[in-house]
Amino acid sequence: MTILHGSAATLPDERFDVEAVRKDFPILSTLVHGKPLVFLDSAASAQKPAAVLETMDTMYRTAYANVHRGVYTLSDLATARYEAARETVRRFLGAGDVSEIVFTSGGTDALNLVARCWAQAFLKPGDEILVCESEHHSNIVPWQLAAAATGAVVRPIPVTDEGAFDFDAFAAMLGPKVKLVAVAHMSNVLGTIFPIREIAAAAHAAGALIVVDGCQGAVHQPVDVKALGVDFYAVTGHKIYGPTGIGALYGRRELLETMPPYKGGGDMIETVSFERSTWAEPPARFEAGTPMIVEAVGLAAAIDYVESLGVERIHAHETDVLDHATRLLTRIPGLRIIGTAPGKGGVISFTVEGAHPSDIATLLDQRGVAVRAGHHCAQPLMVRMGVSATTRASFAMYSTRAEAEALASGVERAMALLR
Amino acid sequence: MDTTTHEAELTELRETFGFLDDWEERYAYIIDLGKGLPPMDEALKTEATKVRGCTSQVWMIGREHADDLGRARLEIVADSDAHIVRGLIRILLMLYSGRTKAEIREVDAEAFLSGLGLDRHLSPSRRNGLFAMVERIRALAAA
Fold first, then answer.
1. Under DSSP, is residue A337 helix (H, G, I), strand (E, B) or coil?
2. Chain B residues with CB-CB distance to A418 below 8 A
3. Is the dihedral angle over the CA atoms A395, A213, A245, B55 positive or is it negative?
4. A interface mutation test: which of B22, B32, B52, B56 has the most A CBs within 10 A?
5. What is the CATH number of the domain that holds A32?
6. How far apart are CA A291 and CA A275, in angstroms?
7. Domain boundary among A277, A307, A337
8. Chain B residues within an 8 Å CB radius of A349
């Protein structure tokens, strides 16, 4: 597999060679408006290393058939690859058993699965779901739907002005009515990494479960769901250098076993008759129909690639780029960074007096710098922070200090045009 | 402002863009156009007048009034919270505002902006509110 992984994956020393990493990502040599691409929107979706592209291409060419169905060689081969991918995700998240890993179409799908099959199935009128106010809409709206269906109530957990988790306020909200706490491991806007272990312990002490949106968190730091003590942990493939259309839900075995199916179809049943059907054990119970076979294998290839470089080393590299960008941006007059809690992940959101985020993003694009502008699917957080939108730059393993400099000088130049 | 003035403005715009070959100069010009956008009464910026956008907000109303010959003309008032979008709105007003509904139905905004290399801003994927604004103008003209 070293041929597929390229040079960066086989570096023997501790040095993180970002230039070698960049060579593994074909799209990074793209020109935008005739200028080299500076891709700073990996928090929305990360680019894919050749290892992922080649793994998926090779599987379609040589090892593809439907899974869990056939008695023939190719189906066996595809099933083995698909189930091996589940084991890779289990190892990556630190789950105890592969049956605790359900493949989903992404993070949103994973959270909706919990909302539908746990919250909607078990919550009663008056029960409370505590949701952090900085959450992405995908970790707010599913709980609102479950609340509407059950008579439960969704209550926001505040964040501080710096964008940190307000633990005192959270502790004060805990009580016998609270049945579920929903929080992201890392905010997609603020970059804040939330103290999941402490939040989980407090939730459990109050008799509540905790569901964590790990779509950003799992990309930027090592995750161990057992050490964190969480009940559910949702991840998506495309933010961790894998394909779109695949994600996973970790759920504690005892919980998954009690939960009704998510969708009905093939592969999720034990027996079917028109009188009564019985459900397969988890995780099959939650994977109706033909799954995202090659996508799951592509996700495993992405995880292998990430692990070959080292999650800790990637995190250290991203932190270096983030700190550099923060230093440079802070010097720009009128620039306000939204999210200043210590120990942030590789995301920097900001506003600049006299310009709208979309102005800045449009002008940065002309220089080949790709950033996001808008509410980042976190409208309640925008209200909390007193802004209508922000510009967001996000960093990945392939981001460089030079790109942070291109961002800062691009913002300065944009402001010269806008003022 | 009558449509003759708009035609003169559009011609000037095309000519000016022809002179500016550097993208920074072009965007500086669009930003300047936005600064000249007639102000929209803050009271008119409501949920009802907001058009669907994501990266920036756009508010727009269309008012019908009769000209000297008794023909109904659609006057459009619009604004945005983003400078570049304001400049692009100014161009859209040159194209659409003060025209009869029949004239509006004939306007090809995509083609005009394409000629300036700005058509990407009018694409539905931009979600800056401009595409939705044009949709709303066309709906008013179809009514």
1. strand
2. 31, 83
3. negative
4. B56
5. 3.90.1150.10
6. 27
7. A307
8. none
User: Which distant-in-sequence residues (6+ apart) come within 8 Å of A347 by Cβ?
Assistant: A43, A186, A187, A188, A189, A190, A191, A216, A322, A339, A392, A393, A394, A395
Q: What are the pLDDT digits (tens) for A209-255? A: 999 999 999 999 999 999 999 999 999 999 999 999 999 999 999 99
A297 close to A82: Cβ distance less than 8 angstroms: yes
**A348-376 as b/e: b if 16+ CB within 10 A:** bbbbbeebbbbbbbbbbbbbbbbbbbbbb
User: ipTM of the assembly?
Assistant: 0.87
Average pLDDT (A93-116) is 98
Element (H, E) at B66: strand B58-66
pLDDT of residue B2: 61
Please, which pLDDT band fits residue B119 given cuts at 50, 70 and 90?
confident
What share of chain A in percent tops pLDDT 90?
89
Cβ of residue A144 closer than 8 Å to a chain B Cβ: no
Percent of chain A exceeding pLDDT 70 equals 97
A356 vs A349: CA distance, rounded Å? 13
Q: Is residue A1 part of a domain?
A: no
For the cut 90, the answer to whether the pLDDT of residue B1 exceeds it is no
Total residue length of chain B: 143
A140 and A267 inside one domain: yes
CB contact under 8 A, A366 and B56: no
Residue A284 is classified by DSSP as: G
State the nearest Cα–Cα gap between B32 and chain A, in angstroms.
Answer: 9
Coil, strand or helix at A275: coil
pLDDT at B54: 65
| CB distance A242 to A52 below 8 Å | yes
Under the banding of pLDDT at 50, 70 and 90, the label for residue A276 is: confident
Listed residues A253, A287, A307: the one ending a domain: A307
